[in-house]
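Good morning,

Attaching, inline, the backbone tokens for the sequence recovery test we're adding to the shared suite. The designed sequence is right after.
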């Protein structure tokens, strides 16, 4: 059996077991056998592939064995597949009775002993679609229709013509089918198990061919102590400065292109590494948010230094030190798969250390001027790129037609212009083509020149093109267009009449019915304690399949579901997603919509992660004029996020620090407090806009902060004094003089906050911050700007 067959068998072996377990009613085995024998892609493999796909243990030796198996001793390929199966997950049970279980959410397993989840959550047994990715409690779960899933899978499988299509078909149809019948281990999908099994199998095959492991050692893989694998980690640094260090004027034309370029760059570098090491798609354990993890055989260890040096030299030549990819690896033995999260953490620590020794691999002495020296000799006025500052000594310059509105003699370099073109290409993108190229020039005039130096060329399009390797964007129905697969991501941009909306127009969209501040909201958020979630959160089963499943499901929300939230709330023309992937998001938009988005995104994320109290995110939210320097607003918003994450309410008794906050208007609140701010704002807005009150009521309500402060503090200690709440009406007397009903509504809102605190809420849900009232008043002031009273 050759190398390609080992890989395909690794991907398909557990699918064969599944079909065998369901074979009585639909004869799935013979249907798959027919596809493997008649499909042109599978015909290049010999009949041994059938045998490996339908390898079963002694308890399952039925008609399948008589059709496909030669009795006798296991072949080398069977030993490799068995070893890979064993190492992929700590659960060692065979697949049968698959229709009795559905996939349990892996998020319920994070810090399982300490989390607050009292019921299991399950995914619907349906093909992958953004409508189907939320887990539900068992009493709301539809019964599994595994037969329908298998039938549709086989119908599409017969049409595949390349290896990558098989990989994505498996993800599409088996992302929510459990890999184990065990109730305690049913949170790993059949896809994730098959993916990691194939990655391990091809690595073991390479080790065997390199004479690093013997057949007998494969049979006793759990006790083999010699290093056989490499875990490779890469982390791209310089991202924020690269994206945001540009002029604010027309920034909307460039930001998305620069951000998307970094995504493409990392994708290409990962492809480059995989190709150079002769690996497969399954060996990419994770790639997103500026990070990647790759599994490789230990025999490739000597190739890594040359790869790292080559990558760094290309990045240095293309970006003069602005971007750096820190890469490192660890070697490990088969038995260490049992605690794969520890390996994940160890290699991450090594990469962090590499970041403190940037460019060592290219030789600091030889490249000192490139890294630390000036870019060029300086230029005359207007003889440089007005976006990045580079001169024509480095790249070709031309007049910037997109920015020259007043015949300004501003020039733009070819690279920055290509980012603007990329932004424009994304407006209506439905497809992404990634194709190989032999253009290995070291002249970097455009973003595709940089990508081409790694052997690939990218293009986005709204319609199908003639390229061979095309991916469908945010749509898993890729086989209908004969695409290679699908990719989730926040690709599209706010537009009007097929024209991209500017940041000034986004600010104008904050004005509703003539009311409101013409400003932008800038939001940065990311998952709290992500490192601890991966390295400590998976307590009992820390297998490679579980780790990759967790990272894939986290990415699915940030890269896929964000689009659904924007579209379902009709925010397409009001939100500009600069980047969203891995575990973080940065967006710009109409300030009032950004506030609503933050609340909605948090609410859906909590639902998606089964309300696990240890899986949260924090956010920083700033409001700025549309022409405020974008790099400054980005850095300030990052500072707000840092404040949200470092706030301390004297809680040091948990397994990880509880953050779970949002910094808004310079003040940090928990998410329940933000919800109350919005509720008070809605009430005040109604009083000002619809009930005829002047904006003077806002000042009067602001005064009530003093009276409510002691009441709120009492409620957080479980104390309720009705007399104090009654006296609060004194602070609202000016409101009461004009409208007793309005004052009553405000008192009811305050009272509901007190009752909320008294009903045994957790500290995360407790309303502590008295600044909720000033924040609500400020929010209302911004929302009612330009409102003409009377």
């Amino acid at each position: 059996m050759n190398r390609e067959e080992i890989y395909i068998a690794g991907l398909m072996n557990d699918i064969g077991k599944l079909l065998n377990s369901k074979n009585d009613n639909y004869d799935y085995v013979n249907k798959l056998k027919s596809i493997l024998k008649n499909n042109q892609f599978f015909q290049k493999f010999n009949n041994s592939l059938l045998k490996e796909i339908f390898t079963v243990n002694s308890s399952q030796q039925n008609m399948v064995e008589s059709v496909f198996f030669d009795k006798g001793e296991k072949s080398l390929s069977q030993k490799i597949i068995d070893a890979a199966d064993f190492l992929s997950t700590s659960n060692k049970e065979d697949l049968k009775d698959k229709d009795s279980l559905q996939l349990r959410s892996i998020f319920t397993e994070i810090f399982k002993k300490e989390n607050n989840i009292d019921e299991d959550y399950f995914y619907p047994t349906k093909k992958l679609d953004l409508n189907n990715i939320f887990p539900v409690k068992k009493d709301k779960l539809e019964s599994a229709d595994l037969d329908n899933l298998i039938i549709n899978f086989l119908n599409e499988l017969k049409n595949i013509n390349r290896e990558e299509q098989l990989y994505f078909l498996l993800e599409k149809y088996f992302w929510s089918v459990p890999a184990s019948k065990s109730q305690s281990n049913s949170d790993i999908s059949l896809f994730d198990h098959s993916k990691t099994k194939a990655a391990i199998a091809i690595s073991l095959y390479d080790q065997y061919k390199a004479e690093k492991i013997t057949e007998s050692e494969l049979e006793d893989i759990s006790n083999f102590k010699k290093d056989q694998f490499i875990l490779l980690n890469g982390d791209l640094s310089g991202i924020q400065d690269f994206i945001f260090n540009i002029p604010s004027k027309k920034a909307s034309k460039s930001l998305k292109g620069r951000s998307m370029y970094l995504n493409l760059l990392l994708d290409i570098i990962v492809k480059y590494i995989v190709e150079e090491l002769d690996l497969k798609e399954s060996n990419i354990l994770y790639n997103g948010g500026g990070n990647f993890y790759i599994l490789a055989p230990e025999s490739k260890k000597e190739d890594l230094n040359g790869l790292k040096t080559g990558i760094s030299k290309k990045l240095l030549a293309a970006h003069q030190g602005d971007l750096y990819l820190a890469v490192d690896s660890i070697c490990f033995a088969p038995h260490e798969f049992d605690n794969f999260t520890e390996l994940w953490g160890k290699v991450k620590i090594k990469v962090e250390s590499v970041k403190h020794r940037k460019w060592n691999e290219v030789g600091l002495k030889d490249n000192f001027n490139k890294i630390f020296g000036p870019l060029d000799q300086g230029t005359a006025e207007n003889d440089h790129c007005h976006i990045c500052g580079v001169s024509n000594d480095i790249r070709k310059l031309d007049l910037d037609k997109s920015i020259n509105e007043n015949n300004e003699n501003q020039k733009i370099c070819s690279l920055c212009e290509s980012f603007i073109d990329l932004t424009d290409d994304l407006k209506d993108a439905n497809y992404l083509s990634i194709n190989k190229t032999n253009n290995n020039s070291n002249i970097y005039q455009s973003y595709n020149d940089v990508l081409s130096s790694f052997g690939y060329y990218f293009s986005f399009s709204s319609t199908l093109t003639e390229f061979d390797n095309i991916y469908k964007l945010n749509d898993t129905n890729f086989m209908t267009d004969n695409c290679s697969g699908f990719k989730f991501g926040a690709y599209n941009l706010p537009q009007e009449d097929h024209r991209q909306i500017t940041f000034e127009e986004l600010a104008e969209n904050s004005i509703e019915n003539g009311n409101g501040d013409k400003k932008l909201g800038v939001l940065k958020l990311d998952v709290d304690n992500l490192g601890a979630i991966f390295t400590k959160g998976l307590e009992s089963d820390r297998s490679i399949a579980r780790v990759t499943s967790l990272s894939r499901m986290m990415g699915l929300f940030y890269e896929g579901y964000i689009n659904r939230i924007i579209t379902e709330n009709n925010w397409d023309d009001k939100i500009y997603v600069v980047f969203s992937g891995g575990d973080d998001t940065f967006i710009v938009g109409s300030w009032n919509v950004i506030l609503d988005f933050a609340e909605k995104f948090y609410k859906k994320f909590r639902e998606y992660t089964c309300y696990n109290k240890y899986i949260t995110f924090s956010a920083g939210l700033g409001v700025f004029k549309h022409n405020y320097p974008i790099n400054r607003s980005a850095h300030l918003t990052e500072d707000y996020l840092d404040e949200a994450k470092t706030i301390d309410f004297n809680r040091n008794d948990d397994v990880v620090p509880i953050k779970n906050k949002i910094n808004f208007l310079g003040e940090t609140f928990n998410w329940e407090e933000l919800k109350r701010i919005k509720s008070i704002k809605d009430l005040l807005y109604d009083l000002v806009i619809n009930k005829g009150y002047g904006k003077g009521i806002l000042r009067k309500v602001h005064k009530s902060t003093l009276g409510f402060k002691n009441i709120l503090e009492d409620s957080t200690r479980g104390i309720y004094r009705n007399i104090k709440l009654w006296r609060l009406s004194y602070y609202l007397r000016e409101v009461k003089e004009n409208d007793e009903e309005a004052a009553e509504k405000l008192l009811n809102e305050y009272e509901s906050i007190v009752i909320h605190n008294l009903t045994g809420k957790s500290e995360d849900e407790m309303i502590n911050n008295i600044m909720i009232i000033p924040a609500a008043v400020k929010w209302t002031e911004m929302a009612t700007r330009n409102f003409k009273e009377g």
